[in-house]
Design brief:
The protein is of the alpha/beta class and 184 residues long. It has nine helices and five strands. A five-stranded parallel beta sheet has the order 2-1-3-4-5, with helices on both faces. Helix 2 packs across helix 9, helix 5 packs across helix 6 and helix 5 crosses helix 8.
Length: 184
């Protein structure tokens, strides 16, 4: 058994694999606007969502677009694989206050956060793009969590000084930042 099978990941497709992890914030409702250009850039995109993130997504539409179901729950004991090919990179967008803080502390109570903790431990290049309101962005725990994630090698695309309408970069900027991380 190879390492990918041991960790429950499926076979690797020919294209590079990008996990798009969505949390419960407004930008998640437009995740398709990220998935399509990422596919155009040569990525095989698979979507994973927190339970709240799933409420913002059209799960069937994203499954049809990506060729696989949106993963929202831990696999069951009878499932031998999580059905996902191994990731070459991860984008967590939008990343919420809750997810950022749980991820930094290693609290793996959702499949999305559990996978994030594992993928960072595996050294998979990861970009976090928080979408939080100013009151939460200024919370001491949030700043500490971003620092902790950066110390683990996570790249963070977030400007707390940006006006509310611009705090979440547009999807093309997210894809450009990912390319810069991978090519830099």
């Amino acid at each position: 058994m190879d390492a990918d099978e041991e960790h429950g990941f499926g076979e690797r497709p020919a294209a590079k694999v990008l996990y798009a992890i969505a949390c419960g914030a407004g930008a998640a409702s437009d995740l398709e606007s990220f998935v399509r250009p990422a596919q155009g850039a040569g990525w095989h995109v698979r979507v994973i969502a927190t339970p709240m993130g799933a409420k913002f997504l059209d799960l069937d539409r994203l499954a049809a677009l990506t060729g696989g179901p949106v993963r929202t729950a831990f696999r069951q004991p009878h499932e031998t694989s999580n059905g996902l090919p191994p990731a070459d990179a991860v984008v967590v967008a939008p990343a919420t206050f809750n997810t950022i803080n749980k991820w930094a502390l290693g609290i793996t109570d959702t499949v999305a956060v559990g996978m994030l903790c594992e993928l960072v431990g595996m050294g998979v290049p990861t970009l976090a793009v928080p979408q939080v309101k100013a009151e939460l962005a200024g919370h001491v725990a949030f700043g500490r969590s971003l620092d902790a994630l950066r110390s683990m090698g996570v790249h963070v695309l977030f400007d707390p000084a940006a006006p509310a309408h611009a705090r979440m970069p547009d999807w093309q900027d997210v894809l450009t930042e990912l390319s810069g991380i991978l090519n830099g």
